[in-house]
Specification:
Strand order of the largest sheet: 1-3-2-4-5
Order of helices and strands: HHEHEHEHHEEHH
Helix content: 40-55%
CATH class: Alpha Beta
Oligomer: single chain
Strand content: 5-15%
CATH architecture: 3-Layer(aba) Sandwich
CATH topology: Glutaredoxin
Radius of gyration: 25 Å
Largest sheet: 5 strands, mixed
Number of strands: 5
């Protein structure tokens, strides 16, 4: 028994083939355009996108190896955390505000989220370097927690703060960061930066 289903002629086949090629080309173009747009994004723009920080923020993304090298021999303001932690955005805003007023040019930013999950070489060494400062849990587990801020000069830690890194639902951001507490923390960071710059002893 013959099928009554009409057969596509050569023009129909050609039309569908061209349409398919155009569709694939559009996907490739849009994907490339999106990647190019992200590639052109500055560190401050990327930080704004991830944390909602002001456009004029000072944060510069650094690799784990660069952070470890800075801890050993360098000098920098280092902010560590990840956007999944809501306390990090608030601290970043406070820190950025103080740093701008103190004429700091950049703040190193290290997102350790994946490194902590994988416990890789660089993360392990960063944790060991900061062992006397970081929070140690009851089971003797040593880890970085978000947010953490420190100031290093010539490989020496001048200031370390992870005050809000382990809150465990004890308080909301709004309740914790009262105007008075924000002002006190701003002054604390300001003095630490001035010591770093050599303006205070």
């Amino acid at each position: 028994m013959k099928s009554n289903k009409p057969k596509m002629n050569i023009w129909q086949k050609g039309f569908y083939l061209i349409s398919f090629i155009v569709l694939i080309g559009a996907f490739v173009y849009l994907g490339t355009k999106s990647y190019a747009s992200e590639s052109k994004m500055t560190d401050s723009e990327k930080f704004t996108l991830e944390f909602g920080a002001p456009q004029n923020n000072l944060f510069k993304y650094k690799k784990n190896s660069e952070i470890l090298e800075t801890l050993n021999t360098g000098s920098a303001l280092i902010f560590m955390g990840f956007p999944e932690n809501t306390w990090t955005s608030y601290y970043a805003d406070l820190l950025n505000e103080v740093a701008i007023k103190e004429n700091i040019k950049e703040i190193y930013f290290y997102n350790f989220y994946n490194d902590r999950r994988n416990d890789n070489y660089y993360y392990e060494n960063i944790v060991n370097y900061l062992a006397s400062y970081i929070t140690i849990l009851d089971d003797d587990t040593k880890n970085l927690y978000s947010p953490t801020f420190l100031i290093v000069k010539d490989g020496q830690v001048l200031y370390f703060d992870n005050e809000t890194s382990i809150m465990n639902g004890e308080s909301t951001i709004k309740d914790y960061w009262t105007s008075e507490k924000r002002n006190l923390k701003s002054e604390e960071i300001r003095n630490a930066i001035r010591v770093y710059k050599g303006n205070l002893s």
